[in-house]
Amino acid sequence: MLIAGSGPAGLSAALAAGRSGARVILCEEDFALGGRLLVDGGTIDGLPAAEWISRTLAELAALPDVRIMSRTTLFGVYDGGTYGAIERVNDHLPSPPEHQVRQRLWRIVAKRSIVAAGAIERPIVFAGNDTPGVMMASAMRTYVGRYAATPAKRIALFTNNEDGWRTVETALGAGLQIAAVVDARPDVSAAHRALAAKAEFPVLNGSVAGVEGGKDGVRKISVLLTGGARAEVEADGLAVSGGWNPAVGLTSYHRGRPKWQDDISAFVPDGAPPGMMAAGAANGAFRLGACLRQGFAAGAAAAAGAGRSGNAGTPPVADDEAFSLTPLWHVAGKGKAFVDYQHDVTASDIELAQREGFESVEHLKRYTTLGMATDQGKTSNIAGLAIMAAVSGRSIPETGTTIYRPPYVPVAIGAFAGHHRDENFHATRLAPSHHWAAEQGAAFVDTGLWKRAQWYPRAGEKDWLDSVTREVKAVRSGVGFCDVSTLGKIDVHGPDAGAFLDRVYINTFSNLAVGKARYGLMLREDGMVYDDGTTSRLADDHYFLTTTTAKAGLVMQHLEFCRQVLFPELDVQLTSVSDQWAQFSIAGPKTRDLLREIVDPAEDLSNEGFPFMGAREVALRGGIKARLFRISFSGEMAFEISVPARYGDALVRNLMIAGKQFGVTPYGTEALGVMRIEKGHVAGPELNGTTTAADLGLGKMMSTKKDFIGRVMAGREALVAPDRQVVVGIKPTDRARRLRSGAHIIPKGEIPGSANDQGYVTSVCFSPTLDQWIGLALVERGRERIGEIVHAHDPLRGEDYDVELCNPVFYDPDGGRQRG
Amino acid sequence: MAEFSWVPRSPLEHALAVGAYGARDAKPGISLTEIRNFDLVQVMARRGKGAELASAAEARVGMAAPDVPKAVSASDATLIWSGPDQFLVLSKGRKHAIDTLSQAFTQSASLSDQSHARVLISVSGAKARTMLAKLSSIDLHPAAFPIGTAAATSIDHTSVNLWRGNDRPDGQAVFNLLVFATFAESLWHTMLDASAEYGVDIGHSEEVE
Question: Does domain B39-113 have CATH number 3.50.50.60?
Answer without folding.
Answer: no
